[in-house]
Write a structure and sequence with these properties.
The structure is a single chain. This protein is mainly α and 196 residues long. The chain has 6 helices and no strands. α4 packs across α5. The protein is elongated and about 75 Å long.
Length: 196
Amino acid sequence: MSGTETTAVLTTITSSLGRGPTAGSGHQPSVDLPVHWKVKGSHMQIGELAKLTNTSTKTIRFYEDSRLFYEDSRLRPLPARGASGYRDYGPEIVDRLRFIRGGQAAGLTLQQVRQILAIHDRGEVPCGHVRQILNDRLDQVRAQIAELVALEGHLQTLLDHASRGASTEHDHSTVCWILEGDPDAPATVELSHPRD
C-alpha cells in the first residue's frame, strides 16, 4: 500500500470513529475493514499461509505431518481448527516455515532442521549447532565436488578414447568397446597377414 493509500485509509478510519455513536449511548464505534485486510497477529488458513510464503499447501501439510511446525505438542499445541474445520495458523508459523525453507536451501535435511527447531523450542540458542551442521555440510559438498571433478576427468578420457578408436574395434567387444578395457592404453592396430 502506498503512502497516499495509507493516508486515505487512516482518514477513513478516523472519520468513521468520529461519526460513531455518541458517548453514553452504550455502543462502541466500529470500523468496517475489507475482508482481505490482515490485522497483525491474526491467524490464517492454509491457503493464505501458502500464498504468503510461496509454499504449496501440500508441502505445508507434509511439514506439519513431519512435526516440523510442532515437534512436541506439549511445548507447542497444534494450530486450532476454526469453525470451517481448517487449521488457523498464527504468524509464528510464517517465520518457522521460512526457517525450514532456508535450511533446505542450505542443503540441510528435514531431520537436521527438526533438530535445530527442537533446540530452539527448548529455549536454547541453536546457532552453535547450526554452525556445526553447516561445517559438516560444507565438507560433504567439497567431497562431492572432488568426486564430480574426478568423474568429469574420467568421462573426458572415455570420450577421448572413443574419438581415437578405430571404427572396427567394436566388432571385438562384448557390448561397447568404449566402456570396455583400459581407455588410457594406446590403441592397438591389428595387422592382417597374407595367407600363404
